[in-house]
Amino acid sequence: MESVWMKGSGIRKREPLPGDMEVPVVVIGAGLAGILTAYYLKQEGIRAVVLEADRIGSGQTKNTTAKITSQHNLIYSRLIRTFDCRMAEHYASANEAAIGEYERLVREKGIDCDFVRCPACLYSQTETEILKREAEAAESLGIKASFETDCELPFPVAGVTKFARQARFHPLKFLAGIADEVEVYERTKALKVEGGRVETDRGSVTAGQVVFTAHYPFINVPGYYFARMHQERSYVVALEGAERPEGMYLGIDQGGLSLRGYGGLLLLGGGSHRTGVNPVDKTGMGCGYGMLKNRAQEMYPGCSEVYRWSAQDCMTLDGLPYIGRFSTRRPYWYVATGFGKWGMTSAMVSARILTALITGRDCPEADIFSPDRAFTMQAAKGLAVHGAYTVKGLSKHLLPSGKGSVILNCPHMGCRLEWNPAEESYDCPCHGSRFDREGRLIDGPAQTDCKRREGNENERAEE
Ligand SMILES: Cc1cc2nc3c(=O)[nH]c(=O)nc-3n(C[C@H](O)[C@H](O)[C@H](O)COP(=O)(O)OP(=O)(O)OC[C@H]3O[C@@H](n4cnc5c(N)ncnc54)[C@H](O)[C@@H]3O)c2cc1C
Fold it and tell me: Is the separation of the CB atoms in 66 and 168 below 8 Å?
């Protein structure tokens, strides 16, 4: 199912890697994070080539809702509590600066990508105190934030936390404008990385520095990102005949929705769940697309759905991205991942931080994003939950493929796959890899199709 962004993005096709080469920096993955990183390195006079397994923007970037905001759910009161004001300030200022940087690039390059400044709001139908606290916390860190009780949503709210001067845009049109200045090789998949040598299916690239922006780092050791992240899937519908708010909204209550306008359409999102764990309907409104359809008709009777799509993002143990050195054991490897569904500003923050690290420039804001940052109580809880899913998922299991042969476990780390009826895919609850009905790879960290062997549906192993 195609997202609203995929029609006519204007992204130019590129050739695959022509053969072996040697460059100062190689970037793996041409989503927003990879393209922006290579772009800023080029501004510093450093040649960086980007290797892309498929097409530019063909990963999660094509399926986002593209709110460019420093409002990342209820983050600031928590950051002040768990880290300190200085670290929280760094998170706030890096993300606010990212919005400004998007605006500067769009203006200076004349990129026609429907960039609009607008407020971003968190809403609740029951809570006011948490929203007030979040507005105060954000304001204390330099963000223009306020608590309000009035808003433009078609249902009553107890209050909203409003951040002024945030933004929205068309992510692929923006990417097309920036990628035009970047050296990218498409249909070139990184298969193995050893030291500074990246082996692909088209040849190898040897580089002084290697940047992993493949969404989920597919190298397990060192770094151990598989133990520090899971993936979460959410659903989006684009509606015609529904009122479009000027601002962008996200509900903080259970079952809260995401809303933003695009052209004549309203983009309505929600139904989040851990990838590979099918959600249970607790509200009687259904799950995934069904829930969104019911909620849409309730709020905007007679509206119609013109697009639907879903996507997933990497969620870290403490809810902050991992941006910086990949591992102390590989000081010339860098990573940007774990954006927690806030990848628009996080991709820009990644590009700025990684460029500073690679060029040896001082970057005080890098501390809060570092993969080596302090391990908090929240991270410890996250690790326990993630560990439990992984142990369960690792129990051997065979799945019917529907064609008289069976798909074996996930090729990434051998976890048990679950059937996702909403997307008709086999999904891994441990790390979020996804495969079609025939076991062909859809989403990583797995990098290969599932192995299959002859068998039948009755052969499903005991759990
Ligand atoms: C439903 C949903 C809504 C969202 N809405 C928002 C929003 O409103 N605002 C916001 O800020 N964020 C949002 N996000 C998050 C945001 O979309 C992502 O964080 C962001 O797009 C990730 O970009 P990326 O460049 O890291 O990854 P990707 O766009 O996935 O790029 C990674 C690229 O690497 C390539 N790749 C993978 N493996 C290899 C390999 N071995 N060799 C070469 N290439 C490889 C892939 O093909 C892909 O093109 C949302 C996420 C979801 C799930």
Answer: yes
Report how far ligand 1's centroid is from the alpha carbon of 12 (Å).
19
342 Cβ closer than 6 Å to some ligand 1 atom: yes
Q: 95 alpha carbon to ligand 1 midpoint, in Å? A: 17
What is the C-alpha to C-alpha distance for residues 85 and 289, in angstroms, rounded to an integer? 40
Ligand 1, atom 27, residue with closest C-alpha: 215
CB 115 within 8 A of CB 174: yes
- Chain segment 6-59, per-residue pLDDT in tens: 988 899 999 999 999 999 999 999 999 999 999 999 999 999 999 999 999 999
Atom of ligand 1 nearest to the CA of 34: 25
What class has domain 21-64+173-228+319-376? alpha beta
Task: Provide the 3-class DSSP secondary structure of residue 81.
Answer: helix
Question: Would you state the pLDDT for residue 36?
Answer: 98
For ligand 1, whether the C-beta of 347 sits within 6 Å is yes
Question: Candidates 3.20.20.105, 2.40.50.140, 3.40.50.620, 2.102.10.10; correct CATH number of 394-459?
Answer: 2.102.10.10
